[in-house]
Design brief:
single chain, about 600 residues, alpha+beta, Kinesin, 17 strands, about 50% helix, elongated, disordered C terminus, binds adenosine-5'-triphosphate, Kinesin_motor_dom_sf, Kinesin_motor_dom, cytoskeleton
Length: about 600
């Protein structure tokens, strides 16, 4: 029993130990929790202590500031307060003024704003009106553009018709036209001759030739002991001494249109020494070599102006379809000299050439130098070279008398393939004319081996490789004839007398040719002189010839002037003869 009592006592005390141990662990855990809380509370306490310290600082600072303010308030004198008060009052007044000023400004602004608004509205209305007007104008402009297009088309049509009419008109007027230019009295007209009395000299310098009107020359012919008689000469156009180079060229220019239409054209100046032939054809010559300058502008004569015009007309054609060649020859003592021939050093010198008649009855100068030129300046440069070689001698009439006939030839050449003529010449008549020219134009002159021809021939797109290109040429011959003076007047002797004799013979051959054409003789004596032989293609047939008679106005040259006017009148007969005999059914062009 004692044993069982001992066992149960041990058991109870074990339980009690375990209970106590559990309690102990619980207490220990509680202690840890409390210690943690305790340390947190310590932290909070430290924080609160910091806050209290800072608050105490701030409170003492505030106290210090408040004390300072109280001291300041106490120390502020009442005078300052009054001043401040007055300033505040002043500021209040300023503010009031500012306010009323601002109100006034605002009213002004409103007023101006209204004005501007009104102006803007008016402007807008105007713009609206202008817009409406603009629209009307635009409609009108559109209508006008359309009308312009129609007019342009009509103009092109009329232009083509005009070309046809132009050539018909020139034909009706005659293929030979004569214009007469009376030059002004010049200083050398008043130079006394040998053994001439003062009175006689005065009489000799008197003006006797006048342009009575645009078509009439009046010459007062007086002989000692006889009453003076007035002689009248009629020409297609007469220029008075005051008429400009411009006016002269204006009547020449239409002929150049014919040139581009496939007609040969010749313009020649005829008249005695000093009557103004060179002046009319070239313009005033200057320098030791008597060349002319293109800078002379309004004073330029027919040759430079015609060249410019031809190149202008060419520029209207398809590019590359035409090209121009120049040759310059002089006929001196009935010999032909090539003034563009060059020696082996390239120096230009005159070389003698011959004129021949081809199988087709055309004139040709074998081996004559032709230079291809691209523009008027190049052309005129070559003409100037030729001029420098031209034979000149002083005569009693004037110091630089030309003793030879100078012939500048501008040849327009083209290579065409059959139907392509129509692309160059829009009107049928010109195309037909060219087709006709094709069949008979200067075959000898077509130097087919000449590089300029073969290299520059244009090849139209539609050309057949088998189609043989054909060469066409038309020529413009510009002729400054030598003076047609009487031997006694020019006062020449010896070699110069021989020259004068040759000049007069060739001029009379020219007159004979014109006479034979007017009488429609079967034989025209072209070959009686080198001059007429050379000009054969430009005188007669359907070629257009313009003779520019140059006349001195004074008594001294009366005989020569009458002789020139007589030549001109005979030349006009050619046309009259043709007109009379014209048969409307037979083409006047056929020779
Ligand atoms: N219409 C004109 N206005 C002003 N001067 C002119 C006129 N015509 C001719 N002259 C002047 O008269 C002079 C002689 O003219 P030009 O040399 O043209 O005569 P020409 O007929 O060619 O003579 P030639 O046959 O002897 O060569 C030149 O000094 C020229 O400038």
């Amino acid at each position: 029993m004692r044993q069982s009592g001992g066992i149960s006592l041990g058991f109870v005390s074990d339980q009690r130990v375990r209970q106590l141990e559990r309690k102990l662990r619980t207490k220990e855990e509680r202690i840890v929790v409390l210690e943690t809380e305790n340390s947190l509370l310590h932290l909070k306490l430290a924080e609160c202590q910091g806050l209290i310290g800072r608050s105490t600082d701030e409170a003492s600072q505030l106290y210090f500031v408040s004390e300072k303010q109280q001291n300041l308030h106490k120390s502020l004198p009442s005078l300052v307060i009054q001043e401040l008060h007055a300033t505040i009052q002043g500021l209040k007044q300023d503010l009031k003024n500012l306010h009323s000023f601002a109100l006034e400004r605002s009213r002004d602004f409103q007023h101006q704003y209204k004005n501007h608004l009104y102006q803007v509205l008016t402007a807008v209305q105007k713009i609206q009106l202008q817009n409406e007007a603009m629209q009307t104008f635009q409609t009108k402009a559109f209508d006008l553009e359309q009308s312009l297009q129609e007019v342009t088309e009509r103009y092109e049509k009329e232009k083509r018709k005009r070309r046809v009419l132009h050539n018909s008109l020139i034909e009706l007027r005659g293929n030979i036209r004569v214009h007469c230019r009376i030059r002004p009295l010049l200083l050398f007209d008043a130079t006394p001759g040998h053994s001439v009395s003062h009175n006689r000299h005065k009489k000799l310098s008197e003006k006797v030739a006048y342009a009575a009107d645009d078509e009439t020359v009046l010459v007062k012919c007086s002989r000692p002991g006889h009453a003076s008689i007035n002689k009248l000469f009629q020409f297609e156009r007469v220029y008075s001494a005051t008429e400009s180079q411009d006016a002269v060229f204006a009547d020449v220019a239409p002929l150049l249109t014919s040139l581009l239409d496939g007609y040969n054209v010749c313009i020649m100046a005829y008249g005695q020494t000093g009557s103004g032939k060179t002046h009319t054809m070239f313009g005033p010559l200057s320098g030791d070599n008597f060349i002319f300058s293109t800078e002379d502008g309004p004073e330029l004569g027919i040759i430079p102006r015609a060249t410019e015009e031809v190149f202008r007309l060419i520029s209207e054609k398809p590019p590359g379809s035409l090209w121009v060649e120049v040759s310059v020859v002089e006929v001196y003592n009935n010999e032909i000299f090539d003034l563009l021939a060059k020696d082996s050093y390239g120096t230009v010198f005159g070389i003698k050439r011959e004129v021949v008649t081809t199988k087709e009855g055309k004139s040709d100068v074998p081996f004559l130098t032709y230079e291809t030129v691209e523009n008027a300046a190049e052309f005129l440069q070559l003409v100037n070279k030729g001029l420098q070689l031209r034979v000149k001698h002083p005569t009693l009439v004037h110091a630089h008398s030309s003793r030879s006939h100078l012939i500048v030839t501008l040849t327009i050449a083209m290579t065409v393939l059959g139907d392509s003529i129509g692309t160059l010449w829009a009107d049928e008549e010109s195309s037909q004319k060219l087709s006709k020219v094709l069949s008979c134009t200067f075959p000898q002159q077509l130097r087919e081996d000449k590089t300029t021809f073969s290299s520059r021939a244009s090849s139209p797109a539609h050309s057949e490789p088998t189609e043989k290109p054909k060469h066409i040429k038309t020529k413009l011959q510009l002729v400054d004839l030598a003076g047609s003076e009487c031997v006694g007047m020019s006062g020449v002797t010896g070699a110069a007398l021989r020259e004068t004799s040759f000049i007069n013979r060739s001029l009379s051959a020219l007159s004979d040719v014109l006479g034979a054409i007017s009488e429609q003789r079967s034989h025209i004596p072209y070959r009686n002189s080198k001059l007429t032989h050379l000009l054969q293609d430009s005188i007669g047939g359907d070629a257009k010839l313009l003779v520019m008679l140059c006349v001195s106005p004074c008594q001294k040259y009366l005989a020569e002037s009458l002789q020139s006017l007589g030549f001109g009148t005979r030349a006009r007969q050619v046309q009259r003869g043709q007109v009379k005999k014209r048969n409307p059914l037979v083409s006047s062009k056929s020779k």
